[in-house]
Amino acid sequence: MARNYDVIVIGAGPAGYIAAIRASQNGMNVACIDEWENRDGKNALGGTCLNAGCIPSKVLLESSELFHRAGHEFSKHGIVTSGVELDLATMQKRKQSIVRQLTGGIVGLFKANKVEGFVGHGKLLADRKVEYTPKSGAPEILEARYVILASGSAPVELKLAPFDGERIVDSWGALEFDAVPKTLGVVGAGVIGLELGSVWSRLGSEVVVLEALDDFLAAVDRDIANEAAKQFKRQGMTIHLGAKVTKAATSAQGVKVEYEDCSGAQSLEVEKLVVAVGRRPYTEGLLGKDCGVQLDERGFITVDHECRTRVKNVFAIGDCVRGPMLAHKSSEEGVMAADLIAGEIAEMNYNVIPSVIYTAPEIAWVGKTEQEVSVSGRKFKTGSFPFAASGRAKAMEQTGGFVKIVSAADDDEILGVHIVGPMAGELIAEAVLAMEFSASTEDLQRTIHAHPTLAEGMHEAALAVDKRALNYINK
Ligand code: FAD
Ligand code: NAD
User: Fold this and answer.
1) What is the pLDDT of residue 148?
2) CA 112 to ligand 1 center in whole angstroms
3) CA–CA separation, 45 vs 109, rounded Å?
4) 229 Cα to the center of ligand 1, angstroms
5) Is the pLDDT of residue 1 over 80?
6) The model's pTM
7) pLDDT of 416-454, one tens digit each?
8) Closest ligand 2 atom to the C-alpha of 327?
9) Where are the alpha helices (DSSP H) in 190-320?
10) Which of 143, 182, 334, 381 has its CA 20 to 30 A from that of 245?
11) Separation CA 360–CA 337 (nearest Å)
């Protein structure tokens, strides 16, 4: 007889493992199947985020930023350093150790929450039956009252520059370099291109980024994107906009990339090339012929606003469904699906999902850009506060960037908050909370912020919306 569960989750990335834990907290009998295999052949929970995405990239961003500051910034504080050297092997070992601690942590969480973990491949069949195929061994049929699909995403490959794992690599490959490439090409000036470009640039690579679009960070508020572009340029990262790759040829020495931009045909020779032109939903071998779950024209699993597929009691969450490909969006969908299954009221507010790019300066935003509000026709007002006027930012020697708030002119609603500057990824949480609670700009103005903190920048920007900033001359 088939083993029977209340809920089977396929995929244990931030979407799936969180859904499994919440379903179990809701009193369900839960199984979670995951096939992730690391380069050492070992399986691990946590999916892309913990093994090859958010966590290893942030560890290297932190380490490389410290290395850069030790060499370039400490002297301004009166700290004399000499002989600052890079030990990349130790840096990479630390990264692996943090990844291992966190992925191991999920094993502990599953145990504590009584989630049954299965290592191997899951495939949805008709009538909520799931075929589980272990790494070695025969397939087994499991049954469930509910199934949650959380199979994640994979990097987009360019036909003109296919990954070879050596010279032309994806983001995972670019997190694993065991030597700093002298020259590094990056195709795509998106989140991954900028984060990983920053890591290797700080560690000594000469980095050239090729971006197909004419606009830099096209989805980001223009003021923020322009400031970020200025700062990246100052840091020595070369970003070519409107650059269309036409050919990439590898050799023992590196990669010769040919591209076209507004000045005509160009070429670039680099030791390594990272292709970071987006990710696509991953559903290989996930859906049995008769399971009834549908994919849209871009390969995403079709779901409604509650993450329900067209098949009764089958949900899909995370990167394999529409919406931004972000870990926190994925996890919150996991919570919503598990709570809906338990008969509770649950919903996602897709309008207030924060985005963060963990470069230096960091870039973070929530809600609408000034350009989006302008196109919508709603009357608006804006206020900004530069970190150059912040005592705390000066103490940190990080005065680049600013906070910008876009508010409705009619009822004072906060429509968007945009930050480029130190700790932007932490500061944005206040804006998310304010918008989630439908706070007005005046609510932020009347909220006491500790002094001296970077968060005062948020307070002053809110005041500036009504030309009442106190520590900056209103424009
Ligand atoms: P995944 O994390 O991809 O997990 C899916 C899991 O399902 C995997 O373990 C996979 O092996 C397994 N699986 C798939 N199919 C099957 C099957 N049939 N049977 C069994 N198992 C299966 N997001 C952020 O919010 N912040 C960041 O800082 C950030 N940094 C990133 C940096 C990089 C370099 C990359 C590549 C991504 C980053 N992301 C970041 C994006 C984030 O990693 C994803 O949005 C997130 O991992 C999506 O979670 P998920 O659970 O939907 O999918
Ligand atoms: P992205 O969509 O952020 O950026 C891809 C960039 O490549 C775009 O600017 C696009 O115009 C450009 N591009 C596309 N085709 C091109 C071509 N042929 N030549 C040159 N440029 C081209 O995608 P990404 O950086 O690969 O990241 C993938 C996903 O991972 C994103 O959806 C992101 O949300 C997620 N991620 C998030 C974080 C974070 O939250 N900090 C970090 C890394 C990744």
Assistant:
1) 99
2) 23
3) 11
4) 28
5) no
6) 0.98
7) 999 999 999 999 999 999 999 999 999 999 999 999 999
8) 40
9) 191-202, 222-234
10) 182
11) 35
